[in-house]
Amino acid sequence: MVADKVLDGNGMADEDNAPVIRCLEKCGFVREGLLRRHRLRYGEPVDMVVMGLLGEEYRAAGD
To answer: pLDDT tens digits for 23-58?
Structure first.
C-alpha cells in the first residue's frame, strides 16, 4: 500500500495565504517554521510558512 511507503512531506505557502495553510493543516501538516522575506511577490518581499508531515503522523491519522 502506498501509505506504508510515505516517509515525510513538506509544503510552503505565503504567510498571508490562509486558505492554503488551512488546507495543509486539514491534511495533517503542522507549521515548522517561517522563512522571512523568502521570495518576491510583485516586487515586494513575502514571508513563507514551512509546513511538515512525518510519515508516522500520516499513517497514525489513517487509523
So the answer is: 999 989 999 999 999 999 999 999 999 999 998 888
Element (H, E) at 25: helix 18-26
Domain boundaries, the chain: 2-61
- The domain defined by 2-61 folds into Aminopeptidase (3.40.630)
pTM, 2 dp: 0.80
Provide the residue type at 6 as one letter: V
Residues 6 or more apart whose CB falls under 8 angstroms from that of 14 comprise: 20, 41, 46, 47, 48, 49
- Enter the C-alpha cell of residue 35: 522563512
Environment class of residue 36 by beta-carbon count within 10 Å: exposed (0-12), middle (13-18) or buried (19+)? exposed
All three cell numbers of 6, joined, read 510515505
